[in-house]
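Section 5: illustrative case.
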């Protein structure tokens, strides 16, 4: 976890973005699966697979 930053993971399948996850203040990650409820997971890699692909890019910005 990068203190002082908001962080997201962008997933891609065949080089096309498919999904995103956001890191919460606790260090856990959250994402929304379609129209379903938000889920919480320990690591972005846990959602990797044939549906969303793999994490293609991490992005972060300074928390204001």
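Designed sequence:
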């Amino acid at each position: 976890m990068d203190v002082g930053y908001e962080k997201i993971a962008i997933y891609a399948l065949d080089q096309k973005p498919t999904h995103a996850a956001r890191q919460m203040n606790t260090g856990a990650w959250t994402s929304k699966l379609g129209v379903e409820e938000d889920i919480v997971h320990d690591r972005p890699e846990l959602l990797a697979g044939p549906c969303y692909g793999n994490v293609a890019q991490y992005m972060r910005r300074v928390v204001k």
